[in-house]
Amino acid sequence: RAKLSTTQHYWFFNQKLQDELVHEHQMVERLQQALRLGELQLFYQPQVSAVSGRVEQVEALLRWFPREGGVVSPAEFIPVAERSQLIERIGDWVIEEACRQRAEWKAEGLSDYRIDINLSGRQVAHPELFTRLEAALERHGLEPEDIGIELTENVLIKANTGLLDNLRRLYHRGMKIAIDDFGTGYSSLSYLKLFPVTSLKVDRSFVHDAPDQPSDRAIMAAAVFIGHQLGLEVVAEGVENEEQLELVRDLGCDLVQGYYCFKPMAAEDTRRLLGALVLDGDGLTN
Ligand code: C2E
Ligand code: MG
Ligand code: MG
Ligand code: MG
Q1: Residue ranges of the EAL domain (predicted)?
Q2: CB-ligand 1 contact for 259 (6 Å cutoff)
């Protein structure tokens, strides 16, 4: 009996693994098709000055709108793409699309708003990242200040010399480099001295719990302190209500990003918003 249940167990896990592999394979094929059919879009979420309430820049967030309808979150398909070669093609598409959009908005007089893009580990470690970004900027007549990049702490842990080289070259060209989801990875603070970065984005889990949890407040205060000591800008992610906004402001965060200020929006809605801000000569004050 014992033996039988063991084999059943084995079969069960095997079957599950196989189902997952099939699902993953189908997802990769659907994503390849999505690229061909133009089903990917960039949405944009503004980052607002914690002090003045002005919109300073926007983060580009990938969305997949399959023909069948609905929308697939990047949290679902980016990890799959990262396990295949596909992330490089998707990443190149994101770079190209963000540059194209930035150039279009600049031509319309919306020159102040940098677009920050998220880069995956594979992309940042790729020996050609620097050259590809440079080429994309040049193709669209952009400056290095027009586009920023975000990478997570976990990407830094797996850093090779290629990654460090890319970051150094981008930094020296004047590109903004943010550490995303700061505080949730397994990196140590010494990474801040090793890697050239310009801002820290404190993960939204701390922002979410800060009003009720002294430990989350303490971690946020420490992140702001060390960030400022190192001359970095500190961004609070995922601000969802007034209480969190006031708290991150009091803690000294420079910028806020979250549903309470703006949700990620389609390009056209973003353009309307930025256009209205330029006419007003000021940002939104909540
Ligand atoms: P992220 O870079 O940390 O982006 C912030 C995420 O938080 C976004 O989720 C955004 O929609 C969400 N968010 C913003 N404000 C709030 C809020 O107030 N409350 C809550 N609960 N969430 C908020 P999204 O768009 O689903 O993206 C998830 C992740 O997927 C991103 O996290 C990023 O790591 C990755 N991603 C998105 N676009 C790209 C891309 O173009 N390339 C790569 N490699 N990764 C991407
Ligand atoms: Mg990000
Ligand atoms: Mg983040
Ligand atoms: Mg995140």
Answers
A1: 24-278
A2: yes
